[in-house]
Amino acid sequence: MNSKSYCCNDISDFCRRDRNEDDSCKRNRRPQSTTTLKCSTPSTVTIPILADPGSTFPTTSLSLKTPENSNCCTRLDFTSNIVVPVGFLGTLSFQIFKQCRNQLTPVPVGPAFTFARTVALVVGETSTFSFFICDCDFACDDECCTYSVLITNLSAITLGATISSATLSAISTCDEKTCKC
C-alpha cells in the first residue's frame, strides 16, 4: 500500500504519516474553527407611564464581524432586570434585530419574547428577564452586522417600567471553508 493513498479521519492523526500529503488528503482536511465572544455595555431604558401601544424603545446593541469565506453560527443572550412600579399592568415585547452591511433596514432574528403583568401588585417588583436565540444565517462574505434589542409596548395603558442592566452577548463559531452560496 502506498503511504500517500490514505488520509486519517481523526484530525490529531491527520496526514502525520507523510509530510508530502497529496491533494486528496488536503481536500479531506477538516476546516479550522474560530470562536468569538462579544458583550455589549449594560444600558437602562425607562418606558414612560403613558407610552403609546406599538412604541419601540432601543435597549442595547453590539457589532460582530464574521471572517471571510466562513460558515458562522452565533448564540445571542439577552439579560436584564425589569423594575415595575406599584400597580404596573402591561405587556412588553423584546426582540433582537440584525442589520448588516448594505442592508437598509434591520431584520428580526428569531421570535419576540414577552414580559407581562396582568395583575397589579401592592408593592413594586423587580424581575430578571432573559432569553437566547441562535443566528446561523450569515452571508458567505466578510460581514459586519449590528444586533440590537428593541422593546415594544403592547399595552394600551402602562404605569411605566424600567429595564436596567440590559446586556447582549454573542458567542460566534465560524468554520473556514469555501463559500458555496
Verbal overview:
With about 180 residues, the protein is mainly beta. Helices cover about 5% and strands about 55% of the residues. The strands form two sheets. Strands 1, 2, 4, 7 and 9 form a five-stranded antiparallel sheet that branches. Strand 5 and strand 6 (about 105-115) form a beta hairpin. The longest helix has 5 residues, at about 25. The radius of gyration is 23 Å and the shape is elongated. The two termini are about 40 Å apart.
- State the helix count: 1
Determine the oligomeric state from the structure.
single chain
Helix content: under 10%
Shape: elongated
Mean pLDDT: 78
Rg, Å, rounded: 23 Å
Per DSSP E runs of 2 or more residues, the count of β-strands stands at 9
- Calculate the terminal CA-CA distance, rounded to whole Å: 39 Å
SSE run:
HEEEEEEEEE
Indicate the topology.
Blueprint: H1 23-27, E1 33-39, E2 43-47, E3 56-66, E4 70-84, E5 90-100, E6 107-117, E7 125-135, E8 143-153, E9 161-176
Antiparallel strand pairs: 1-9, 2-9, 3-8, 4-7, 4-9, 5-6, 5-8
